[in-house]
């Protein structure tokens, strides 16, 4: 998931602060998610999926292997 968050953020030309504010978390917390030092709660995972307009599966699962965690 950590690489997907970075890719999605960069694809949308956003800063970590932009995303953190949108999901109502601190920039520090979002940064930790992005580098894999923290795992999001289900509520945060839904907020991220909603913000990026992707499914939870797209955030957590490798589409190439369908159900393999990234």
What does this structure look like?
This protein is mainly alpha-helical. It has helices spanning 2-11, 16-22, 27-35, 42-52, 56-60; strands spanning 61-62, 68-69. The chain has a single domain (2-63), classed as lambda repressor-like DNA-binding domains (434 Repressor (Amino-terminal Domain)), CATH 1.10.260. The chain has a two-stranded antiparallel sheet with strand order 1-2. Helix 2 packs across helix 3. The radius of gyration is 11 Å and the shape is globular. 13% of the residues are buried. Residues 65-70 have low confidence and may be disordered. GO terms for molecular function: DNA binding. Residues 5-59 form the HTH cro/C1-type domain. It comes from Clostridium diolis.
Question: How are the SSEs ordered, and which strands pair?
Answer:
Layout: H1 2-11, H2 16-22, H3 27-35, H4 42-52, H5 56-60, E1 61-62, E2 68-69
Antiparallel strand pairs: 1-2
Helix pairs in contact: 2-3
Give me some keywords for this one.
mainly alpha; 2 strands; 70 residues; 5 helices; globular; two-stranded antiparallel ribbon; 434 Repressor (Amino-terminal Domain)
Spatial sequence of strands, sheet with the most strands: 1-2
Count of runs of 4 or more consecutive helical residues: 5
Rg to the nearest angstrom? 11 Å
Number of strands: 2
Helix content: 55-70%
Class, according to the CATH hierarchy?
Mainly Alpha
CATH H-level homologous superfamily name: lambda repressor-like DNA-binding domains
Strand content: 5-15%
Instruction: Report the biggest beta sheet as strand number plus sense, adding barrel if it closes.
Output: 2 strands, antiparallel
- What oligomeric state do the depicted chains represent? single chain
**SSE pattern, N- to C-terminal:** HHHHHEE
Number of domains: 1
Please, what is the average pLDDT? 88
Task: Predict the CATH topology.
Answer: 434 Repressor (Amino-terminal Domain)
What global shape is seen? Answer: globular
Poorly predicted tracts of residues:
65-70
What is the CATH architecture descriptor? Answer: Orthogonal Bundle
Organism: Clostridium diolis
Domain HTH cro/C1-type: 5-59
GO molecular function: DNA binding
Pfam families: HTH_3
């Amino acid at each position: 998931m950590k690489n997907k968050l970075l890719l999605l953020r960069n694809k949308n030309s956003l800063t970590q602060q932009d995303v953190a504010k949108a999901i109502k978390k601190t920039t520090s917390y979002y940064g930790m998610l992005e580098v894999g030092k923290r795992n999001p709660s289900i509520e945060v995972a839904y907020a991220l999926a909603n913000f990026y307009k992707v499914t939870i599966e797209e955030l957590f699962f490798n589409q190439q292997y369908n159900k393999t965690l990234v």
